[in-house]
Amino acid sequence: MIVVTHLCLIMSISQKFLMRKLILLAICCYLPAMLLAQPPVQTVTVKGVAIDSTANKPLGYVTVALYDTTTKRSVKAGLSKDDGTFQLTAPAGKPYQLVLASVGYKNKTFNISGKDAEVNTGKILLETSSKQLNEVSVTAVRPIMKQEVDRISYDVQADPESKALTALDMMRKVPLLSVDANDNIKLKGSANYKILINGRESAMVAKDPSDVLKAMPADNIEKIEVITTPPAKYDAEGLSGIINIITKRNADQGYNANISGRYNSVFGPGLYSHASVKEGKLGVSFFLGVNHNNGFNAGSGNTQTIFGGQSTTQSGSGSNQFHNYFSSAELSYEIDSLNLLTGSFELFHGNSDQAGSQFSDTRNFDGSIAQQYEQQSIANSSFQGLDVNLNYQLGFKHNKDQLLTLSYKFSFSPNSQYNNDIFSQRVNDYESQQPNFFMNNSAGERSHTIQVDYAQPFKAITLEAGGKAILRSDFSNFQRSDLDSATNAYAVNPNYTNDFNYQQNVYSLYNSYQLKMDKWTGKAGLRLEHTTVDGNFISANSTVSQNYNNLIPSVSIQRSFKTSSINLGFTQRIQRPGIYQLNPFVDNSDPKFISTGNPNLRPELNNTFELNYSNFSNNSFTAGLSYAFSNNSIQNVSSLFVDSTATNPHDTVTKTTYQNLGSNSTFGLNVNANFNITKQLSISLNGFVSKVWLKGTYNGQFYQNSGLQGNAFANAGYKFDSGYRIGIDAGYFSGGVNLQGKSSDFIYNSLVLTKEFLKKKATISLVANDPETKYHNNTSTTTTPQYIQTSYNQDIYRTFAVRFSYKFGKLNSEIKKERHGINNDDTKGGGKSGGNSGG
Q1: Do the Cβ atoms of 98 and 46 come closer than 8 Å?
Q2: Could you tell me if 187 and 177 are in contact, meaning their C-beta atoms sit under 8 angstroms apart?
Q3: Mean pLDDT of 711-720
Q4: Which of 247, 254, 461, 666 stands the most exposed, by the fewest C-beta atoms within 10 Å?
């Protein structure tokens, strides 16, 4: 509290000094224009606020029109803002009729004399109506895109396909986002981002966001925010930015609910429900979901040629069957108008069964067999996640937007895995060197977070300040046991047994300002973070001890015009190495290709510049340029390595690890457009292309690589008057560029047919994903001075699905929730997932 008080005092003094400069600058800029201006044309300005009479809350996107009472023609029209306010200007001296129209409400009409220079209608109450009156024929189209000073938001509920698609499918439509063939989500072509649910880090998506999002119906999401220049109140982790998914939680007195489900030809059934209840001061919103994956077989392979030496070819197939369930709930209790208690929890649990076989064939330079074996694997894994949040929000009588928030969060994500590997068909591969083995791993993370936030708006400036402490501990107990052929019993192998404890604490203070004027909005802030790392990798006899500070600036400026805006932003972001990047334990589940972490990794600091243009008039269009660079980039690198821990010390294998290597620069261009061709036909385009430059030195060898990477997505939808809608999606993903190679490109498409019935309360959809191709091969190439390697993974492509949704109940407002809360976005994000989105 002392820190916050000091911050507020400093910012109050800075505010007065800043305001004086801004006033002087405004006078200097506008004085010449005033001297040169001609006498203005006499006009009448009509303004007011649209209010829902039932819920007594502002109504956004209400169509507001001024009609000439003589000609009966529209002179001026527009939409109310999010806060319900509107303003129209027309020539003075003639009478007008002001009409407010919105779907589901009775039209409201006022007579305007046109003699006064300004008419303020005040609050206009709109009543709900089951029938729409025909006083005026105006079609209001809800905008899908919105550009704010530091982010772009995509209104999922305004997209007609939200009833048929999954949350992962919807990601492909959002500007700057893409989903590759392995269902990896990318932000501006990068996996270095953070993903949040309702502004908070979520246990449901912490392990693998793709798996959760392809199981979540898009209809459960309100909007998706892409925060390209995260303000100081967010943790500094996530090089490319933050993806914030805001879910539904509508409620008033009463309840509403939604039940939906799917059946996919490959990925099996899923069932989901969402409900909100409000009674008096208490409000509750919850979501439940369960999925079962039937599993499928897919191939994989790997070819490596050592220059002047041996070559290895591996081929195999595998299957994966899993089921999971997830749930979340939010609770709100309004003690009084100034005191609010909120809480939430998220729970995720999943089980997965895998089986696979792989044949490995290594040849000498003359073509003779150097080594052969077949490896069969059976695995089972269980993963869980739990988040619990508690928040207390204190308001102030003189200003309802002045808020003090105290928050606590507990997170726990344990998981376990079992593998059993058996070798056969051995040629020059001896059981004494590579015996059959099984592995057990029990690992997880536990964290406590305490946070205080203070926000105070002044006339034109909003101040935010706060502090935060994250206390995070990781653990892992990994054990491999080898089969002794003499005793036919398994014995622990100490070389491949892992036991570690890892503690990472992050302490931070932040302070930011937002200045909002008529046409300009600016946001600037600083965040100071102190990080301590203590790791004890017991089995590897290695420790990690790090202690460092980071001062992170962020600046965003927006210039608004009538229907468009220009945004400019700069920020620094951190990528702290994760526990599995630091862990020196050697994973040799594939004996020819092993991987390990690097306990000496340092955090990567990235500098990002953004310039964006947005126009949301009749249609929406956004375009932007970005440039980012880092001088200590964390790269995944590979080299040949003699495995000294093996029984045969001359066994040459490929070792993959992480290093801080040189520079990483990216220059990108993004474009997004949505066109409403007619009332029935709409088209959307979304694309991103970037040039990447990479440089670094590893094992005494200098590497450099560069190339273009990007993606493009197109969607066309046609809505019939009978309640049917058809949508066609197609996209291209170029693959990625890394220091030692690149990955392949791919094309995807889908067809969606949706029918609404029961007064639009129910929908049923038929989905076909890539019907022309059963499988897709995702390839990647690695080139070093020692060898060249090509790998591929086969993914199922052709799927068919049926989805249904039914909603009931009637609620009009929202469950009250705290405006500030914990969002732990300080560790590396961007998950990896296999499979298809499942329709």
Answers
A1: yes
A2: yes
A3: 90
A4: 254
